[in-house]
Structure formats: structure tokens, C-alpha cells
Design goal:
mainly alpha
Length: about 180
Amino acid sequence: MNNSDRSHWCIANRVRMLWMQHGEWIKMAFVAIIFNNPDEERVLQRLLRNPADFARFFDCFFGREFSFSFKRLLTEHLELAAALVRALMANDTQRADKINTKLYKNADELAAALTSANPYWRYEEWRTMLCRHLDLAKKIASEMINDDYKESIATYDYFEAEIMLMADQMIKGLLKYCVIC
């Protein structure tokens, strides 16, 4: 394996790990919130480490300004998702609707940020993936809240597959970007 192959493998492995952790800790946060687990605060702290981990990784490619912006947007994404679960648990549909609107606006902003950093990432592709990611996350949470655990697990399989698609899309764009760097 030459250095270029090793570098590509390292990039791909790191991106997949970041996205896998993103999905896994979202699910763990939903479980902690919905079932009022005693580790909820620590789980949420760990979940919110994911944006910082992404930012450190992106700093090598796109610099601090982009990394900080992405970290802020991804943190907002996760905080809004947790707030939405709490609103759904409280049957506060008005609050849930407001948070939902903010979540999709955040997805637009994340897609725009990603595509502004890398010419090989496309806004519509990222927006579509991020919206599917949100749809599936909300479905998982709703199914868990409604004690439909079998469906929640089945939906998580789709959620996980979507996360891997996002990871692969990110990897393709990064590897193309690295060729021009």
C-alpha cells in the first residue's frame, strides 16, 4: 500500500467513524431522554463532542473558520433534536412544530456550509440526505415514545444506512478535494 492509498484509507475510516458515532450517540441520547436514564447528562455531553471531533478533522482540510461554523451548526442540529424529543414527550405540538422548522433550516445551513467548503459536494445532495436523516431520527424517536420498539429498531437500520451514505458522499468529495489541494 502506497502513501496515497494509506492517506485515502485514513480519511475514509475517520469519516465513517465520525458519522457512525453521530448516529449511535443520537440513538443513545433519545433512549436516555425518553426513558429518563440516570446517564442522560453524560450521554448528551458525549453526543455534543461529535461536532468538535468533526471540526478537528475538517480543520486539516478547510481551516478554522469553516470548522468552527460546521461545529456550531452540527451542535445546533443535535441540541434541536434533543429539544424536539422533549417537546414530543410533553405532547407540546406547538413547540415541536417550531423546533422542527428550525431543524430543517439548520439542515439547509449545514448543506450550504458543506458545499461552500468543497466544490465536489453538492447542495441538493447534502440537503436531501440531511432531511432524510432528520425524518428518520424523528421517526425513531416517535416510535420509541409510542413504545413501538420493533419499528424503532427497523427504522434505525434505515437511519444507519443513511448515515453511511452521508459518510460515503463526504469521503468521495474529500478525496477529490485532496487531489486539487
